[in-house]
Amino acid sequence: MNRFLRAAALTSLVLSLWGFAPETKAAIPDVASLRSEVERLIQSAGWRNSAWGVLAVSLERGDTLFALEPDRPLAPASNQKLFMTAAALHHLGPEYRFPTFLLANGEVRDGVLEGDLILYGTGDPAISTQLLDSPMVPWRAFASRLRELGVHTVTGHVTADASFFRGPSRNPSWDEGYLNDWYAAPVSSLTFAENVATLHFRPGSLSAPARISVTPEGVELPLLNSSVSVPAGARSSLMLIRDDPDGPIEIRGQIEAGSRELARIITVSDPAAVSVSVLRKVLQEEGIAVWGSLDKVTSPDASALTERQVLAPAFERSSPLSMLAVHYSPPLKELIQILNKQSHNLYAEILLFTVGRVTRGDASFEGGAAALEDYLRNVVGLDEQHFHVEDGSGLSPLNRATPYAFVHLLQHVSAQDYADSFWESLPEAGNRRELPRMYQSAAAGNLKAKTGTIRRVSALSGIVRSAEGEAILFSILSNRVPSTSRAKRIEDGIGIELASFSRPLAPPRGD
Questions:
Q1: Rounded Cα distance, 365 and 320, in Å
Q2: Domain assignment present for 511
Q3: Which of 190, 196, 350, 490 shows a CA-CA span of 20 to 30 A to 236?
Q4: What is the pLDDT of residue 5?
Q5: Rounded to an integer, what distance in angstroms lies between the CA atom of residue 448 and that of residue 394?
Q6: pLDDT, position 308
Q7: Domain closes at, from 308, 330, 352
């Protein structure tokens, strides 16, 4: 008996205890053929040191179609977002919207705000071009509101209050090599343009530094430009160096005269400071003078708002604060489509912090992880042996989950009122904008699943319908794989086999 068949036999009793019915007799021919083909696909890689966990269960019958070490805890990569999505829908609801507030702590007299403007965020990740024409849209709406109130001058500061979340803004277990890249953007309750900026480089006059511009406009970055413009014919060799993602960005090397513009996307080190600097620029463009400087609040103790322990600012009559305007994000059911179809880590971490704040009063990686584990344990009904949470996105290699955990989660979600919002957020196989894999196969337009990839880790978990329309929940996790692209071809093969699987439909259940 090979190790795959031996593993399947050993898990038969465990599956029955979990509530997924194994075959008590010899597998019927259709199921036996499916199992044989899935085993062949996994063995085809020939990787002796890789670790696989696979589980496929009929949602309608409850029987196990395939199981290979389904209780093996493995790094799930971005399949972690399935946990996060379900927890957010449960605690916040599909219609939840993130508010961002513009406040004043002074009075308006003759068009002059005698005090500070305060920009207070609660984590809206969508102040960007994903769902808006421009990330400037909320700030221009705030400026329009000030003009409606007759304000033309602000005597005080423009303050960014980002104290709704607490640090660190990056998980300590994230690979340091990721931290300058968009998928490891820092978490903040004031987010602008997904907390990244694009540096554009053009040659200057000979021997002069490269000319640098930043988009979105108004974003201020700490730059140390020691580059040099060289004659045509010399090769451009610009380098961006930032060893600490919170430190300055150094530009070295040379750029050739007449060369085309070069560009590089990089994470911003202080999203709250970026947000408020852009707001001040918009105010000035709209004819509103600001006499004070930019300011920032990150500690709840220093905030007149966060210390009240409320989700939205509520003010006593004696308070000098007044709410001037509020911008709401699109509903959560739209945000999770970006989260899962683009595998957007920042969206996931903001939801982690938010769920931590809502359920435990702790908007942090630690508080969010504890809240997510509470949800998996107490709501979904998973034992602790099936998961360990470090973050909401799956970027940390220290996350752990079993295939059983994902299949059980999907089974739980399928019975909830928010199930449609959950399923609609998952990428669809064969869709070039979502999951282009498995194109022109039985899985195309059928299988919906979350992908996952970090170093030497690949994953795919979701739902697919068989040839007869039987809904099958599945999870495929692989660790220590020499090639994630090869692992994904195996995942695709399994998905296509499940989509092609054929057996008579189960008889209708009696009342």
A1: 33
A2: no
A3: 196
A4: 41
A5: 19
A6: 56
A7: 330
